[in-house]
Amino acid sequence: xxxxxxxxxxxxxxxxxxxxxxxxxxxxxxxxxxxxxxxxxxxxxxxxxxxxxxxxxxxxxxxxxxxxxxxxxxxxxxxxxxxxxxxxxxxxxxxxxxxxxxxxxxxxxxxxxxxxxxxxxxxxxxxxxxxxxxxxxxxxxxxxxxxxxxxxxxxxxxxxxxxxxxxxxxxxxxxxxxxxxxxxxxxxxxxxxxxxxxxxxxxxxxxxxxxxxxxxxxxxxxxxxxxxxxxxxxxxxxxxxxxxxxxxxxxxxxxxxxxxxxxxxxxxxxxxxxxxxxxxxxxxxxxxxxxxxxxxxxxxxxxxxxxxxxxxxxxxxxxxxxxxxxxxxxxxxxxxxxxxxxxxxxxxxxxxxxxxxxxxxxxxxxxxxxxxxxxxxxxxxxxxxxxxxxxxxxxxxxxxxxxxxxxxxxxxxxxxxxxxxxxxxxxxxxxx
Length: 432
Fold this sequence. Notes:
By secondary structure, this protein is of the alpha+beta class. The protein has eleven helices and 13 strands. Helix 1 (4-23) packs antiparallel against helix 2 (28-47), helix 5 runs antiparallel to helix 6 and helix 7 crosses helix 8. The chain is globular and about 50 Å long.
């Protein structure tokens, strides 16, 4: 399928050829030759479409950097450290093999084609505009995978093709199908995200997609009990675009958990999303050490980030490079059904190619993700984040506070009524 811009250019060029033919007198055989030549030219343009997407990636993301760089620095992949050796033979290559298996077990979401049109539009593919949505689906799917199967789970379906995938694994993928019937589909995200600027054919930023996920998760939670975790957005302002370090308020997190449990418990498994603006046209170098350090947190879900207009899902770091899953490949729609008795092919949801990009070249608008299974996990995250803020030399990614009244987190999910109104305009911040 030709990307829309290329298709328009090709058709425009073809129409010009047709106009030229209609003006020139010629014999029937001459017209046939011109038509054949025009059609051949058009087919060549169409066959180059996939190559054009690849060139677009190279222009936006930079030269394609793949594999592992020639360095023995520690590689951090979503909270797990891989200590590489100068000589792979000393450990029989087991560390590199374990790293690659871990990376290939992460959930990949890419452009898809051939799905039912989105809402009342004619879009049956998200090619060239859906990369931020796909990146966010990866992060959210990873949180569900951690919740259901744990961080140590590895995908073994590629090793033994006849093995039926785990039920929990299929339950993780199924809601991300490309139809309105799938809870976390691109269709439903666009539907609930209209308030934040989501629309078929348009690119959005990290803050808008985080808020859209919050709205979608709350909507699905009200409809059923299928969502296994609360979602909390850490933001320093109402629009998320004013810069400054956001504040993780523990009191607000507890409120989100209480709302999720409908007042039955003050704690629940938690997905934290932290939209950030770390510079003007690219990430300010002073933030890079802290950004890298977040990948050492056991709660890490990586980063939604990339170049302007080209989002990726960054899952690992080594030195000053970020390793990512790329949503810009185009694949046919795949339906995953956990109820089927046949072997399900989920190979299109995984990638074996390590790709990396210099962290200093990232767009400054990005978002961090963290998953906390329980209260102890959350307390550990707060301790690590506070320590990181203290060591940031005045450039923290975000800060942590126990309680405050100057910034009030308004959740889009209200399950608890008769909440006490906060007051006290002159209260001070209590920083941990």
